């Protein structure tokens, strides 16, 4: 068993590459879990020899009313989800922790990196700086909702074609920004692309290829 | 982050009533407040979500100028054709701030109220007179490269981070408030308070009061405006120094100038000193330099931010050169 792969998310790249390192008998998610376990148990078990163990998807949300929670209805990628969560749960955490939509990434969690970019009512926002409860009645689109009928969105295809990433962690946010940019007032040259993509940081520095990917889609529009 | 009660009123009256409760705060775009809640710098016990209040319109005023609803998003304001035509300085200031995602969230009212980026304010491991009055100011003798050189006190040297507010300061905006005591209007030049002995009080907004809208006066059709921002990277960064300039030229002579500086003051910094130096003078680099000297005359620097004096002067000179060249 491994963590569910987000079928249309280039952002799942890092999960796949972690999964390839089977020679160590450990995946990245299991490594993180074991670190946590080791931290609690303070055992001397070498981390890299720990039994393979993966994080399970969160169970389907059960609508109940534990103290301090509120019912929240979210429409994500055209699908309605009923949640019972605390009002302090950010949209980002609701997507990842409550709905298992791991394509949206948590980078800085403070609006400084853009990894968590999603579309709300057709506009890109940082999902880390808003509470899920604030988005009832909104149309939310995540990276998982870009592909249609098994066909990648042209921007997803362009990121593949132009190798617009290295580790892939920022990629879903980059793509969500790039898709939004197509409909925004943005100068029609590379400087415009750089400025309009400046809210998405890539620590690998794949910017040249990201700009090339965005340019190629714009030129076809 | 602490838990909080959440409400989403549909009218301004309901919103201001809800916000009079102890520990209550309004949330609009959330880009400052939620960030600071995660750091435990802001700890509201109730959030009043004002996102469905009918305050999201940009309307021309009968006497000229524009009325901007408090919930107008920064991106919508920046790209509004009337703003671009009447107030380039405001559009440029908005587009120089934050990122497209944040500008889609951030609102006009929220931007006016955004909190400082002072590292010590944002880190609860440190004392901070703004966060905990009387606890001290580690920035004064600490790492203070981004801190203010104008309007500081022995209790606080935190910089006001907004670009939009600097443009509005130069434009002579009026901020309109509504609360339990009724409606009132405050010129933006009187809206922000200097830190003095009480840096925790940053503006004149009272408990439960909401910003409903901002009005901008009409400029003479011959006036030109511009915003120039200097920072550590080309985009998505706060100002180390910025200048909002509005100049009305008659030939080569400056009829009137309105000048504000950002990134250097404890509040968005209007400079009547620079304006006096410019009024009635001919356009020349020497005049601009004298205005810049006047604007920074009272600057007080700290260990790491001495460079801001010359940077701010050059920023203002360059902004004036640009705006007069396009006239």
Task: Describe the protein in words.
The complex is a heterodimer of chains A (221) and B (327). With 221 residues, chain A is an alpha+beta fold. Chain A contains seven helices and five strands. Chain A has helices at residues 13-20, 28-41, 91-98, 154-161, 171-181, 190-196, 207-220, and strands at residues 69-76, 79-86, 117-120, 123-126, 139-141. Chain A starts with 12 loop residues before the first helix and ends with a helix. The relative contact order of chain A is 0.14. Among the domains of chain B are: 5-49, Uridine Diphospho-n-acetylenolpyruvylglucosamine Reductase, domain 2 (2-Layer Sandwich); 223-325, Enolase-like, domain 1 (2-Layer Sandwich). Chain B has helices spanning 12-18, 33-38, 74-79, 81-86, 88-96, 100-105, 108-112, 164-171, 272-278, 285-295, 307-325, and strands spanning 5-7, 24-27, 46-49, 58-60, 66-69, 174-179, 182-187, 210-216, 223-230, 241-250, 253-262, 269-270. The longest helix of chain B has 19 residues, at 307-325.
Query: Strand portion of chain B, in percent?
Result: 15-25%
Q: What's the Cα radius of gyration of chain A?
A: 19 Å
Overall morphology of chain A: elongated
Q: Supply the CATH superfamily name of the domain at 223-325 in chain B.
A: CO dehydrogenase flavoprotein, C-terminal domain
Evaluate the radius of gyration of chain B: 19 Å
Mean of all residue-level pLDDT scores of chain B: 97
Q: What CATH architecture of the domain at 223-325 in chain B do you see? A: 2-Layer Sandwich
- Structure annotation, total helices of chain B: 11
| Overall residue-averaged pLDDT value of chain A | 81
Give helix % range of chain A. Answer: 25-40%
Structural class of the helices, strands and pairings of chain B? alpha+beta
The arrangement of helices and strands of chain B along the chain is EHEHEEEHHHHHHEEEEEEEHHH
Main CATH class of the largest domain in chain A = Mainly Alpha
Strand content of chain A: 5-15%
Our measurement of the CA-to-CA distance between the termini of chain B, rounded to an integer number of angstroms, reads 51 Å
């Amino acid at each position: 068993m491994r963590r569910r792969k987000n079928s249309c998310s280039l952002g799942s790249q890092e999960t796949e590459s972690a999964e390839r390192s089977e020679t160590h008998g450990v995946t990245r998610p299991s490594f993180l879990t074991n670190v946590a376990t080791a931290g609690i148990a303070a055992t001397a078990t070498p981390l890299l020899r720990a039994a393979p163990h993966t994080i399970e998807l969160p169970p389907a949300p059960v609508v109940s009313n534990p103290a301090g929670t509120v019912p929240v209805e979210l429409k994500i990628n055209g699908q309605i989800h009923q949640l019972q969560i605390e009002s302090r749960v950010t949209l980002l955490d609701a997507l990842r922790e409550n709905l298992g939509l791991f394509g949206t990434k948590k980078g800085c969690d403070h609006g400084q990196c853009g990894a968590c970019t999603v579309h709300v009512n057709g506009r890109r926002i940082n999902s880390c700086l808003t509470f899920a409860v604030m988005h009832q009645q909104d149309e939310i689109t995540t990276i998982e909702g870009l592909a249609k009928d098994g066909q990648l969105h042209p921007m997803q295809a362009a990121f593949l074609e132009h190798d617009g990433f290295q580790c892939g962690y920022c990629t879903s946010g980059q793509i969500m920004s790039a898709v939004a940019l197509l409909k925004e007032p943005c100068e029609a040259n590379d400087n415009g692309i750089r400025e309009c993509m400046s809210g998405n940081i890539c620590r690998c520095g794949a910017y040249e290829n990201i700009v090339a990917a965005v340019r190629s889609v714009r030129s076809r529009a | 982050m602490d838990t909080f009660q959440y409400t989403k009123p549909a009218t301004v009256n309901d919103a201001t009533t809800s916000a009079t409760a102890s520990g209550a705060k309004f949330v609009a775009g959330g880009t400052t407040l939620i960030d600071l809640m995660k750091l435990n710098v802001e700890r509201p016990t109730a959030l009043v979500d004002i996102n469905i209040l009918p305050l999201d319109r940009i309307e021309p005023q009968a006497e000229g100028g524009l009325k901007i609803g408090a919930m107008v998003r920064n991106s919508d304001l920046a790209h509004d054709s009337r703003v671009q035509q009447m107030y380039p300085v405001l559009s440029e200031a908005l587009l120089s701030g934050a990122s497209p995602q944040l500008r889609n969230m951030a609102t006009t009212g929220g931007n006016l109220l955004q909190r400082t980026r002072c590292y010590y304010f944002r880190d609860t491991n440190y004392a901070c007179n703004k966060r905990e009055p009387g606890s001290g100011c580690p920035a004064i003798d600490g790492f203070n490269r981004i801190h203010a050189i104008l309007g500081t006190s022995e209790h606080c040297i935190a910089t006001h981070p907004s670009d939009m507010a600097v443009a509005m300061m130069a434009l002579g905006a009026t901020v309109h408030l509504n609360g339990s005591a009724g409606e009132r209007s405050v010129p933006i030049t009187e809206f922000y308070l200097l830190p003095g002995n009480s840096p925790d009080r940053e503006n004149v907004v009272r408990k439960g009061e909401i910003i409903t809208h901002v009005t901008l006066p009409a400029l003479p059709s011959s006036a030109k405006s511009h915003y120039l921002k200097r920072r550590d990277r080309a985009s998505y960064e706060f100002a180390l120094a910025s200048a909002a300039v509005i100049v009305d030229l008659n030939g080569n002579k400056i009829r009137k100038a309105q000048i504000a500086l950002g990134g250097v003051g404890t509040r968005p910094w209007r400079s009547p000193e620079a304006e006096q130096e410019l009024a009635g003078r001919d356009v020349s680099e020497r005049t601009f330099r004298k205005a810049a000297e006047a604007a920074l005359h009272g600057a007080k620097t700290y260990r790491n931010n001495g460079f801001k004096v010359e940077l701010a002067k050059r920023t203002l000179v360059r902004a004036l050169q640009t705006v007069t060249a396009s006239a």
